[in-house]
Design brief:
Elements (H helix, E strand, L loop, with lengths): L1 H92 L12 H21 L5 H24 L13 H103 L7 H14 L16 H24 L1
Length: 333
């Protein structure tokens, strides 16, 4: 009987122990995944910080290279402009004019315009034989030349240090060629400098790409570990609910057993009480004696006389039976 009562508890206790063991193992697995995610996140953040510093260095180098390329472009533009002026001078020297009506541009045109302006101004101041009509015509021509000069000045401003001597074009051409060669060399040197900077940047770009790839790999490990930890955490919550239910059931069974034992002991204790120990029983017997004139206790018959030997023997037997619960209760303790 006792074995049958404990069997369900043993099964429940075994099942609860298995669930608690599994719960501890799952918690260890979750902690392991969280630790893996933490390490991956730390490594990823470190790699990303390195990549950020490297990208900043690359940006500085590329800006430096951009400035050098711009400088090379400026030298190239100056070289091309000087060579264009040389071609114009040579063309003028050989008498190869452009299309009729086409205005001259550049330093040569500006120099010629300035020379004409100077010549007309000198004539106006020194030639006293000019008629009013001729002077007005010259003034209109001067005004036109001045406007032309003002138009050419901005385009030739960067070459204002180059003086073109129309009386000595050979010397001017050689001077311009030397300046064009200098600009070409400056352009070439700037391009070499920019290429050298690019050679420094290339391994930095490779390292940047590697760090980016490594950061992506570590981030994938972080995400995967976090997902695994979250998945196990969801399973833990389900299992923990089952564990708590099993614990509550065991607690309820234990409380029920304790209640049954407590009620049983109390009922036995109440059943074994003698009249002198149980006030209610004593009152009940007294009431029966007063109302019926006789008392039935421990198997005595109502017809027995109180003083008869049988009654006396029965009373003695009843007292013995009433004493027995004390020894029984002692054994129960």
């Amino acid at each position: 009987m006792q074995s049958d009562e404990s069997s369900p508890d043993d099964d429940l206790r075994t099942r609860l122990h298995a669930m608690e063991t599994r719960l501890r193992r799952m918690r260890d697995q979750r902690a392991s995944h969280n630790e893996s995610a933490r390490r991956a996140a730390d490594s990823r953040n470190s790699v990303q910080d390195q990549g950020k510093e490297l990208r900043s260095s690359i940006e500085e180098k590329l800006n430096e290279q951009k400035e050098v390329r711009a400088r090379a472009k400026a030298h190239q533009n100056q070289r091309d402009a000087i060579q264009s002026r040389i071609r114009e001078i040579i063309s003028n020297k050989r008498g190869k004019k452009g299309d009729e009506g086409k205005a001259k541009t550049g330093v040569v045109a500006l120099s010629e315009t300035i020379a004409k302006i100077s010549s007309i101004e000198n004539r106006i101041m020194t030639d006293g034989s000019l008629t009013l009509k001729a002077e007005n015509r010259i003034l209109r021509e001067l005004k036109s030349l001045i406007a032309r000069r003002d138009e050419l000045l901005p385009a030739a401003a960067e070459f204002e240090n180059i003086k073109i001597d129309l009386g000595d074009l050979e010397s001017t051409i050689q001077s311009l060629k030397a300046e064009a060669d200098a600009q070409h060399k400056a352009m070439t040197d700037a391009h070499k400098e920019a290429d050298a900077i690019w050679e420094e940047v290339k391994p930095m770009l490779e390292e940047r790409d590697f760090l980016r790839s490594e950061g992506d790999r570590l981030h994938s490990i972080f995400v995967e570990s976090r997902e695994s930890a979250n998945s196990i955490h969801s399973e833990i919550e389900i299992l923990l609910k089952e564990v708590n239910e099993a614990r509550d059931e065991m607690r309820a069974r234990k409380e029920e057993r304790e209640r049954v034992i407590r009620d049983h002991n109390q009922s036995v204790k109440d059943a074994l009480k003698t009249p002198d120990q149980d006030e209610e029983l004593a009152d009940s017997l007294t009431e029966q004696l007063l109302s019926q004139g006789s008392l039935t206790l421990g198997g005595s018959m109502s017809g027995d006389a109180q003083g008869s030997p049988a009654a006396i023997g029965e009373k003695s037997s009843t007292r013995k039976r009433l004493r027995k619960p004390k020894s029984f209760r002692g054994r129960g303790k």
